[in-house]
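Table S7 (text form). Paired inputs.
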Amino acid sequence: MPIVPRGIRGRGRDDRPARQEEPPRARHPGHHRRIDPDSTWYAPADVALVIEVVSEESADRDRSLKPFKYAQAGIPHFWRVEDEAGAPTVHTYELDTMTSTYVATGIHRARLGAAVPFPTDIDLKSLVP
């Protein structure tokens, strides 16, 4: 069963309870529970990848607090999307289970190619006009 990416909904901090963390964006392969497309939260064991898109308002949380929390929860992969001079740059990380911290696996500027958590080949330049 392939991973089913979720679309980014644009829900802000005001649309959910104060204690709820940011929703993960992808499901773990092989999981057979029914997916609720309107859910804003999944159990960490159900998540293979979290993708954070950094904005000015969320930059500090997206670069420091959230990766720490995702790693402590045992989520195996974390990608952070940054804006570099109007073009997307994707920083990819994989969880080191011995230390429960993320290890950088790449910085992708023109093309995002990855084998884990699923085969990915994205022309990043085509994402912006």
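Next pair, protein 2 of 2.
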Amino acid sequence: MMKKLFFAVVAVAALTFASCGNKSNANAEAVDSTAVDTTALAPETMTTFKALSAQLISALDEGSADAVTQALANFEAMYKTLANTGNLEDLRGYGVLVKNLIAENADKIKSVANGNATIASLVSSIEALPTSAGTTLEDAKGAVSEQAVGLANESLQKGASAEATAEAATEALKNASAVAKESMEDAAANAKSAAKAAADQVASDAEKTAKEAKEGINNAAKDVEKSVNKTTKEAKQKTGEAIDKASNAVKGKLGL
């Protein structure tokens, strides 16, 4: 049932995401940040948020829809991990920071998404994360689907799973910052590898084109040479025939 609901949400999000740029900005303004002290977050929570933020910005700069998808999913997985630890204060503050970050980068996300229904769904889900003073742990846990968690980095999934205990979530939280940095490095390495492969392909295609052009020029030169040789041979033959004809005519007149 949850899986069907997730895909239904994906479909709806895909239809509405095109107009959510202005809506995201409005949502950012609507977040009651005065009720949440984002400066009081635990060091590991703030460090992880910064690492996840860097991952998203890097993915947007690369223009990679896959990398943006995982970065957004990582934000949700981290939110649910905080819910599983039972830390409501950090969860609310973290949620506000994430919402604001998404709103600030709404246009870039929309540009990279380019109709990607999964990204649209993740953005909508993040915008709807409970962050009010009345938020309960059950509200927070229910706000993040298992499908969204499944799109996150494997290590982050451990603390965000429905079965994760508070102890397991706390342990996952300790490693979340390093995992986020690792994800960003992996994405950068993949992008670099893809760029190199593309550059190598361009160079290979250029070399092939140059080779074909050279062969074409050589073949054309050979054809011209053959044509010239044929014309020269024919000209010599005709000249010889003309000389023989003239010579025979002279001889005829002389009676030779």
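The two ends are 117 Å apart (CA to CA).
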